[in-house]
Amino acid sequence: MSHRELDDMLGTAWRKPHFVANPMLRWGLVAGFVAYLIAAFMTIEVDWGRVYEGLDRGAQFVLAFTSPDFVSRAGDIWEGLLESIVMTVAASVVGILISIPIGLGAARNIAPMPIYLICRGIVAISRALQEIIVAILLVAIFGFGPLAGFLTLSFATIGFLSKLLAEDIESMDRVQAEAIKASGARWSQWINYGVQPQVMPRLVGLSMYRIDINFRESAILGLVGAGGIGATLNTAFDRYEYDTAAAILILIIVIVMALEYLSGIIRARVQ
Amino acid sequence: MPVVEQGSSRIWHRRTRNESLIRWFGWLLGVAVFVVCWQRISESTTWFFVWDAPRIANDIWTRATPPRWEYITQLGRPIWDTLNIATLGTMISLVLAVPVAFLAARNTTPSKLFIRPIALLVIVSTRSINSLIWALLLIAIIGPGVFAGVIAIAIRSIGFCAKLLYEAIEEIDHAQVEAITATGASRWQVMAYGIVPQILPAFAGIAVFRWDINIRESTVLGLVGAGGIGLQLSSSLNVLAWPQVSLILLVILAAVVISEWVSAKVRGAII
Amino acid sequence: MLRLQKLIKTYKTGDQALKAIDLEVPAGQVLALIGPSGAGKSTMIRCINRLVEPTSGSILLDGTDLAKLGATQLRKARRSMGMIFQEYALVERLTVMENVLSGRLGYVGFWRSFLRRYPQSDVDEAFRLLDRVGLLHMADKRADELSGGQRQRVGICRALIQNPKLLLVDEPTASLDPKTSRQIMRLITELCQERGLAAIINIHDVALAQMFVPRIVGLRFGEIVFDGPPTALTADKLTEIYGEEDWEATITPDDTDEDIEAAE
Question: ipTM of this predicted complex?
Answer without folding.
Answer: 0.86
